Amino acid sequence: MTAPNEWLAALERDGGAIAATSPERLDLDVPTCPGWTVRDLVVHLGGVHRWAATFLAEGPDSTTRFAPIEDDAPSGAAVTGWYRDRLDGLLRELRRHAPDEPARAFIGSVTAAFWMRRQALETAVHRWDAENAWNAAVPVESVLAGDGIEEWAQVFAGRFLSRGPGLPDELVGRTVHLHGTDRDDAEWTLALDRQAVTVERGHAKGDAALRGATSDVYLALWRRVPVTRLETFGDGTVVPRLLDAVQVT
Fold first, then answer.
1. Percent of the chain whose predicted confidence (pLDDT) is above 90
2. What is the number of alpha carbons within 13 Å of residue 7 lying toward its C-beta?
3. How far apart are CA 71 and CA 172, in angstroms?
4. Topology at the third CATH level for domain 4-138
5. What is the β-pairing status of strands 175-180 and 208-212?
6. φ, ψ dihedrals at 208, nearest 5°
7. Is 85:36 a contact under the CB 8 Å cutoff?
C-alpha cells in the first residue's frame, strides 16, 4: 500500500506529465476513451481535480452535491496551463488535510486519504490514456497500481453492480486470483457476490486467475488493456463476464 505522501507525489508527477502535453497532441483521438480527444481528457481531468478540491474544502458535514466544473476551460494550447492551475489547486487543498481527517466524497463519509488515493489513481490512468494516444504509454507505477486494484473492488465494482441486476447466478460465490509478476507481494483474491466484490491480499487459488505486470492487471479491470494481454488460468469465462457485469468505464 502506498503512503499518503506517495499518493501526492504520484499525483504531482502524473499530473505534471499531462500539463506538459505538447499542443500538437491535443487533437489526437484517445482510443481508450472513445469519442474523446487528448484535449477532452485534459479538460475532464481538470474538472475532476476542482470537483475533488471542492469536496475537501466544504468539509465533512456539507450536504451539497458537486459536479466537475469544466465550462471555463480555454481553447487551444492554453488548456494545459488551465489544467496546471487545477492540479496545483488540488494539491494545495490536499496538503491542507491530514490523511485521517474526516471528509466527504461521492460515496459518503470518508477521510482525506480517500481523495489522495482517488486523485492519484484517476490521474495515473488518464496519463496512461493520453500517452497511449501517441503510442508511448508508460505503465502505472506498480505499488500504485496495486492500490488501484484494491480501490476498484472496494469502491467501484459494487457501486456499478448496484446500478443494475448485479452479477449473474453463475458468478456469485466465485473467486478470482490476481497476480502481479513485478513484486513479491502483488497478489489479491476477489470474492464475487451479487452486488459486491471483496478483495483480500495474499496468495490463494481462485476459480480463475490473471497473471501479468501489476499495471496491466489494474488497467485490465478498467478495460484499458484486454484481458488477453495477461496469462489466464482456470475458468476463462469468469473475468470477462465479471467485467461485462461491472461495466466500469
1. 92
2. 23
3. 43
4. Four Helix Bundle (Hemerythrin (Met), subunit A) (1.20.120)
5. parallel
6. -140, 160
7. no
Spatial contact of 177 and 167, defined as CB atoms under 8 Å apart: no
Domain ranges of the chain: 4-138, 143-245
Task: Report the C-alpha gap between 115 and 120 in whole angstroms.
Answer: 8
- Report pLDDT digits (tens) over 19-54: 999 999 999 999 999 999 999 999 999 999 999 999
- What fold does the segment set 143-245 form as a domain? Nonspecific Lipid-transfer Protein; Chain A (3.30.1050)
pLDDT class for 91, splitting at 50, 70, 90? very high
Q: DSSP string covering the chain, please?
A: ---HHHHHHHHHHHHHHHHT--GGGTTSB-TTSTT-BHHHHHHHHHHHHHHHHHHHHH-TT---------TTPPSGGGHHHHHHHHHHHHHHHHHTS-TTSEEEETTEEEEHHHHHHHHHHHHHHHHHHHHHHTT-PPPPPHHHHHHHHHHIIIIIIHHHHTTTT-S-TTTTT-EEEEEETTSTT-EEEEEEETTEEEEEES----SEEEEE-HHHHHHHHTTSS-GGGSEEEE-TTHHHHHHHHH---
CB 69 within 8 A of CB 51: yes
